[in-house]
Amino acid sequence: MILSDRDIKQYIQQGKIKIDPSPDFKTQLGPCSIDLHLGNVFKVFKVSSYPYLDPKRDIDFEEIMEEIKVPEGGPFILQPKSFVLTTTKENFSINNEIMARLDGRSSLARLGVIVHLTSARFDPGWHGKAVLEIGNLGIMPVILYAGITRICALTFEKLSNPSETPYLQQADHKYAEPDSPQASKINHEHKK
Predict the structure, then answer these.
(1) Residues with Cβ within 8 Å of residue 140, at least 6 apart in sequence
(2) Bind-site residues for dCTP
(3) Does the keyword field hold Chloroplast (predicted)?
(4) What is the pLDDT of residue 57?
(5) Which amino acids are annotated as binding site, given as ranges?
(6) Domains of the chain as residue ranges with CATH
(7) pLDDT value at 138 more than 90
(8) Do the beta carbons of residue 113 and residue 152 sit within 8 Å?
(9) What is the pTM of this model?
(10) 116 — alpha (psi -120 to 50), left (phi > 0) or beta?
(11) Catalytic site positions
């Protein structure tokens, strides 16, 4: 069951969903979702000596990325055909009775901006800022504003039963409680 706007407000009041800073329901709450804002830390790939990215290679993907910080309200220019990792401004957590899904916003997609094509599920027990994969498929640069642009929408689904092993209790979680964008850790899977 997908939570309605009424349910979302009730779950927030009951502490089953926590969002910090607290959302402005007038501007952020939709019929069955809540919008989150763009964070202010971005990671982009640097020019590298590696001719390609190999998930089996023992390299630290963080080392081939550059971090860019933008002040609150400041612009980040997303160049055509570019890719960036960032986060939401908001931290959120969900209890072990629900899961969340993240979608990009149609208004940004119509400018060529894609948000979070994969990894859109947040398992029960999640806590942190959502790390976003953003690309510009368009032919023109698009300016996004840190802390101001509503970048994505979260929907919530109630599980048939509470999760037996919430996300933070899983032994193999790689991206627990992020506060800033993290590069891929897929090569850790090949070390096992």
Answers:
(1) 80, 112
(2) 105-110, 123, 131-133, 167, 174
(3) no
(4) 73
(5) 105-110, 123, 131-133, 167, 174
(6) 5-49+59-159+173-183 (2.70.40.10)
(7) yes
(8) no
(9) 0.85
(10) left
(11) 133
Beta bridge partners of 37: 150
The Cα 4–Cα 12 span in angstroms is: 12
Q: Using one digit for the tens of pLDDT, what is the confidence trace for 76-135? A: 999 999 999 999 999 999 999 999 999 999 999 999 999 976 768 899 999 999 999 999
